Amino acid sequence: MASKIDPETTDRSGEEHRNMAESSFESFLTCSVCLDILTEPVSLSCHHSFCKRCLTEHWAQQPSRPCPVCRRTSSKEDLDVNFALKDATSGRGSLGCTSSFRRRSRGPYPL
After folding, report:
1. Cα–Cα distance between 111 and 109 in angstroms, integer?
2. What are the pLDDT digits (tens) for 8-44?
3. Residue 50 in 3-state DSSP?
4. Helix, strand or coil, per DSSP, at residue 5
5. What distances in angstroms separate CA 33 from CA 11, 85, 108, one per listed residue?
6. pTM of this prediction?
7. Burial annotation 19-35 (CB, 10 A radius, 16+ → b, else e)
8. Where is the stretch described as Disordered (predicted)?
9. 29 touches 92 (CB < 8 A)
């Protein structure tokens, strides 16, 4: 005997999967320093990505240049923008980087 498929349950399940996928994608595009959508995204050799400004400011306080997530020391001198992530974040409705570093009134920051 074939079991009946409840269209309401099927639709809800499909919607839940879409929401989970979108949430996962959003977290992939989120800077773990400022918790906003990546702005001028840069990626480290450990494959973690951050806003260029967030990472630069983090490293200004941490001379050993650790990754803010895994603490692995980076040997990168220049931070090149990850254009694949930049394309993925364009049009995502970000208001820009809201780094806690920037929220402090310490003045302008170099990029």
Report:
1. 6
2. 555 567 777 666 656 666 777 899 999 999 999 999 9
3. strand
4. coil
5. 36, 16, 18
6. 0.64
7. eeeeeeeeeebbbebbe
8. 89-111
9. yes
